[in-house]
Design a protein that fits this description.
207 residues, mainly alpha, globular
Length: 207
C-alpha cells in the first residue's frame, strides 16, 4: 500500500468514525456520566468488536454472513434489541450529585462487553467493510499486510475519535448541577440509543 493510498484510506476512516452511530452515542453517554478515564473500558470494548468485524471480513466470513439473509437478520435484530435495552437503561438511570466520586458505575468488565456488543451486533459494519476494503486493495500485492494495515488504521482512528467524543461529553458534566438536568440528559441519550436502533432496523442491504 503506497503512502498516497494509505492517506486516502485514512481520510475515509476518519469520516467513518466521525459519522454519528451507536458507538459514538455509547462513548458520549459514558463520557458524560463517568469521564474519559472511566470510559476507557467501553471504548476498548468497541474496538475489540470492530476488530472482530474486520477479522471476519478479512477471513471471508463477512462475505458469507452478508450473503446469508438469515444470518444477517439474526445479527441485525440482536443489535436492535440490544440498543433498545441500552436506551431503556439510560432513560431509567438514576441521577448523581455533581462532583460525586460515588457515582454508580458498571464494572470495567461490564463496560468492556457493552462496547464489544454495540459494535459486534451491527451488520452494517460488516457490509460496509466488504464494500470498502476492495476499493483500496492492490491485486498485485499480498492481501494480508494490506488488510492488517487498513484494519489497524480503522481501529486506531476510531479509538481516537471515540475518546474525543467521550472527552467532549465529560466536559458537560459541570453543567449537570441539578437532578432535572441530569434526568433530561439521560433521557436524551436513551432516546439516541433507541434512534440508533430504529436506524439499524431500517437497514436493508442492496442487492
Amino acid at each position: 500500500m503506497t503512502l498516497t493510498v494509505w492517506l486516502t484510506f485514512l481520510m475515509a476512516a476518519l469520516l467513518i468514525s466521525l459519522s454519528p452511530g451507536a458507538g459514538a452515542v455509547n462513548s458520549m453517554s459514558n463520557g458524560l456520566r463517568f469521564g474519559l478515564r472511566r470510559s476507557a473500558s467501553v471504548i476498548l470494548g468497541q474496538q475489540v468488536g470492530y476488530g472482530l468485524q474486520i477479522v471476519m471480513v478479512g477471513a471471508g466470513l463477512g462475505a458469507l454472513v452478508a450473503s446469508s439473509t438469515t444470518a444477517l437478520m439474526v445479527i441485525k435484530w440482536a443489535g436492535v434489541a440490544y440498543l433498545i435495552w441500552l436506551g431503556i437503561q439510560k432513560w431509567r438511570e438514576p441521577v448523581i450529585a455533581a462532583g460525586s466520586e460515588d457515582a454508580p458505575a458498571a464494572s470495567h468488565r461490564q463496560q468492556f462487553w457493552n462496547g464489544v456488543l454495540v459494535n459486534l451486533t451491527n451488520p452494517k459494519a460488516t457490509v460496509f467493510l466488504i464494500a470498502l476494503f476492495p476499493q483500496f486493495l492492490s491485486a498485485g500485492a499480498p492481501q494480508g499486510p494490506q488488510l492488517a494495515t487498513m484494519g489497524a488504521t480503522l481501529i486506531l482512528v476510531d479509538c481516537v475519535v471515540m475518546s474525543g467524543y467521550a472527552l467532549l461529553a465529560s466536559k458537560l458534566f459541570r453543567f449537570m448541577t441539578t437532578p432535572a438536568r441530569q434526568r433530561q440528559m439521560n433521557r436524551l441519550f436513551g432516546s439516541l440509543f433507541v434512534t440508533a436502533a430504529v436506524v439499524l432496523a431500517s437497514f436493508k442491504r442492496t442487492a
